[in-house]
Amino acid sequence: MSSEQSDLRGRKQRLLLALVIPVALFYVVFLSSSTSTSTSPLLAVPPRIHIASSEVDGDKEQQQLPPLRQLTDAPYSLGPTVSDYDARRAKWLQDHPGFPAFVAPGRPRVLMVTGSSPHRCGGSTGGGDHMLLRAFKNKVDYCRVHGFDIFYSTAVLDAELTGFWTKLPLLRALMLAHPEVEFLWWADSDVLLTDMLFEPPWGKYARHNLVLPGWEAKVYGARSWLGINAGSFVIRNCKWSLDLLDAWSRMGPRGPVRDMYGKVLGKALSDRGAYEADDQSALVYLLVTQRDRWEDKTFLESTYTLHGYWVQIVDRYEEMRREWAPGLGDDRWPFVTHFVGCKPCGGEYASYDAAQCMRGMERALNFADDQILKMYGFEHESINTTAVRRVRNDTGGPLDADDEDLGRLLHPTFRAAKSTVQFRSIAASYLVLSTRKSGKLASSGKFKLNEVCYLWKWFPPIRINNRDGLVFSGGCILMTNNNRFSVNEQNY
């Protein structure tokens, strides 16, 4: 029995040693690998694992980036050339009448496009993401009031086009995916809409495909890279625009190509250094060196602030509210306040103090938000605070009953089921139509009407079913038939 107990004790001791020795060895190895920051081995702690999402993500993305395009490689292209794009788009629109490119006479379908980095945005003040959210809310407010669609991107669609250049493949992709959109309006994340009532005069651009904030003298005369601003512009959905985006993007691939074109831009433009190519300088370069190709369809807009320099604006908001009213869009009440040189997410290229930028953005956002809140009877206590107060008591009646500006914001005419524009009623049995050329009477005729039609003005003649017709903005088309006009109701 004693021998059995002795064997049992021996087995227990061997088992204990088998458990203790690996633990002891692990502890010795751990102590030998610890840093020397601890004053005593007894104070040693497991090494802390530091995970910074932006750094880790950045490292992974850096490993996944394609090789840098070399100067000996084929030129960069956004995609295959679509030589018959305009015809294809026209055919699509014809086949899908429920998605017209113009949502009302003279009113194009507009898609606002904006975006920001896919990474977390902190900034030196720690509020970068919150500021981006408020800036996006500002754009959503404007688009809702004016019936625009909006697209927000946090994706880099092509790893060769980084930074400022990410907008180009995005715009091309959206054009091809949305043939129903007539105009795309690019707005940087730091662009704020500060006149909620103003809308670009679309009819002014009937012959143009690109609308840039800028000045001809600065672009074509001084050849200045500051002659335009590429942070807020409007571009038409057409083949001309696809060609422009492709020509523009060739200067953007990161690495040797971007560096080489930076030197080219530095020589070609009067006030630019030889640093790597940026999108704004590249666009000015195209306009001045290929003027015959691009100038005719480009409109340089300076009659309202499609791009308003924030430094000259943010301290005048109180004065604007005392002296003027929204709907002007120019320096009196700027349409856009653009925070160029500010970096809400931080970065080495910031030109202004972060606190100064944040203060200015706070004021601009509250100034714009007041125009929305007043639609519902509220406003900020001041443009320096987010606190709000009631400025109108509820009466049970429509808020815009006695306020024309509120009516234009709350119930714009284009949202009405039927046109609310008042037209002259023609109830007679006959209508006399005449045409003029160069101010002289060219022809006239007396045509019998079989229905009442509301007339204001007519648009250029059209042909439907091999018959001539005149389109009237009152919502009808007069068709010729044996020297008579019949009235056909049309919904626009």
General description of the model:
This protein is of the alpha+beta class and 492 residues long. The chain has two domains: 88-389, Spore Coat Polysaccharide Biosynthesis Protein SpsA, Chain A (Alpha-Beta Complex), CATH 3.90.550.10; 424-489, no CATH class. Helix content is 33%, strand content 18%. The chain has helices at 2-33, 53-64, 85-95, 128-146, 167-177, 216-221, 239-249, 256-268, 279-289, 291-294, 317-323, 354-373, 404-410, and strands spanning 102-104, 107-108, 110-115, 149-153, 183-187, 191-193, 210-213, 232-236, 298-301, 336-338, 378-380, 388-390, 424-426, 430-437, 440-448, 453-455, 462-464, 467-472, 476-481, 484-489. The strands form seven sheets. A six-stranded mixed β-sheet has the order 4-3-5-8-7-9, sandwiched between helices. β1 and β2 (107-108) form a beta hairpin. α4 runs parallel beside α12 (354-373) and α5 runs antiparallel to α7. It is globular, with a radius of gyration of 32 Å. It starts with a helix and ends with a strand. The model is unreliable at 26-56, 418-465 and 471-492 (pLDDT under 50).
